[in-house]
Amino acid sequence: METKPALKSRANESVPDFFPLTPRKDLPFGFMKLVCGLVLFMAGTVLGMAMRARFNWYFTSHTELFFPQTMYCADCDPETMVLKNFVKPSHLAHKMTDDELFWRATMVPKIHEFPFKRTPKVAFMFLTRGPLPFSSLWDIFFKGHEGLFSVYVHTLPEYKLNASKNSAFYERQIPSEEVQWGSATLVDAEKRLLANALLDFSNERFVLLSESCIPVFNFQTVYEYLINSAHSFVQSYDEDSPRGRGRYNTRMRPAIKLSQWRKGSEWFELSRELAVNIVSDYKYYRIFQKLCRPSCYPDEHYIPTYLNMFHGPLNANRSVTWVDWSRLGPHPATYGRESVTVNFIESIRNNGTICTYNNEPTSVCYLFARKFAPSALEPLLNMTSTVLDF
Ligand SMILES: *[C@@H]1O[C@H](CO)[C@@H](O)[C@H](O)[C@H]1NC(C)=O
Ligand SMILES: *[C@@H]1O[C@H](CO)[C@@H](O)[C@H](O)[C@H]1NC(C)=O
Ligand SMILES: *[C@@H]1O[C@H](CO)[C@@H](O)[C@H](O)[C@H]1NC(C)=O
Ligand SMILES: *[C@@H]1O[C@H](CO)[C@@H](O)[C@H](O)[C@H]1NC(C)=O
């Protein structure tokens, strides 16, 4: 904290000028008594006036104490001590380091009832290097549902997202850091997105999406499905292969056993409770940071393994984001404009059984799909009012 020594020393200097500490010896005693009496009388008057003013103030503006409109300090932001800004920061920009942010974001109120009207929201967290080619599709998806969602975008640090004022993506970029795909910095970016979204106490569900994801159901379906689910949706499975158990490092013992090791898609959906737990975990995260290096990929193992170890019953163990890995190779199949037909969209939706919500589903259900090329945008926009039903 900054102190202000300049002011203090100036005050000290001025004291002897106006209030001599000892009366001068050469003044007659009677004169001194008169002066003292006068001073006492004046002090009494001033005190009385001040008390009355304070008394009046207390009764006329008592509410000011609890809901201050004005702050009685010279150098403070009048907005800082208002609850509204504590439960939902008005700006996404901040100067916190990750450690500071994670600490702040993982605070959980002990009182379970909210002293404000809380409508649970879904946080849509976009992890991208730069542009969001489907932002106009998402804007149609979000339209009319303001207050039920929040958007967060993590880009490369130098990238400036260009969104128009009426877009859900306008000023939704969070303070971002460099990310190397396949390294633990990818998990850092995920935790950074979660932590920034946790700062808004109304966010209840947190879904990670990429720039090539599209929504395949309308907002109401997605919202109800996620908000009403007792489970989070993180794919987590044990694969006895070089790409599964083969990526386990025996030096992780005894903290993490091979039997606890899991694999899963990066594209998660988490409840607030699990999001807080993941952001606050340093112990297991550090093991992955140190011992899970290519061909081990922390983004495919850390969260699935961590949840399996500590919160298994709260996880559906499947993702709500569909990725087509049917084509062999390290990258999923990408769909362009020629793929976007009514049948194709419906085949994604109905893969498995059609979603049921309210009743906890046991079937496969895809709310989001990746990966689509920017060229798919136009035919998708063409479908918003028909097959996509946005
Ligand atoms: C941002 O987008 C608008 C249209 O939405 C465009 O006119 C403008 O040139 C863009 N700015 C930059 C820096 O790309
Ligand atoms: C998911 O796996 C965990 C074990 O990690 C298990 O406890 C849980 O019941 C599974 N969830 C469902 C919905 O089967
Ligand atoms: C459903 O998805 C699986 C992979 O997740 C794929 O193998 C299968 O062909 C899909 N089925 C349909 C009907 O699209
Ligand atoms: C949009 O849909 C109409 C019919 O509904 C079709 O004639 C047109 O070719 C479509 N445009 C694109 C770009 O898919």
Brief account:
The chain is built from 13 helices and 7 strands.
Report the span from N to C terminus.
Answer: 51 Å
The CATH topology annotation of the domain at 96-319 reads as Spore Coat Polysaccharide Biosynthesis Protein SpsA, Chain A
Radius of gyration: 30 Å
Low-confidence stretches: 1-28, 55-65
Number of strands: 7
Order of helices and strands: HHHHHEHEHEEHEHHHEHEH
Task: Tell me the strand order in the biggest sheet.
Answer: 2-1-3-5
Largest sheet data: 4 strands, mixed
Mean pLDDT value: 84
Q: What is the highest CATH level, the class of the domain at 96-319? A: Alpha Beta
Helix/strand-derived category reads alpha/beta
Question: Could you please describe the fold and organization of this structure?
Answer:
There is one protein chain. By secondary structure, this protein is an alpha/beta fold. The protein has a domain at 96-319: Spore Coat Polysaccharide Biosynthesis Protein SpsA, Chain A. The chain has helices at 5-18, 29-60, 63-66, 83-87, 98-105, 135-142, 184-198, 219-227, 272-280, 283-291, 298-310, 342-349, 377-383; strands spanning 121-127, 149-154, 203-210, 214-215, 269-271, 321-323, 368-370. It has a four-stranded mixed beta sheet with strand order 2-1-3-5. Strands 4-7-6 form a three-stranded mixed beta sheet. It binds 2-acetamido-2-deoxy-beta-D-glucopyranose (4 copies). One 2-acetamido-2-deoxy-beta-D-glucopyranose is lined by residues 326, 347, 351. InterPro entries: BC10-like, Glyco_trans_14.
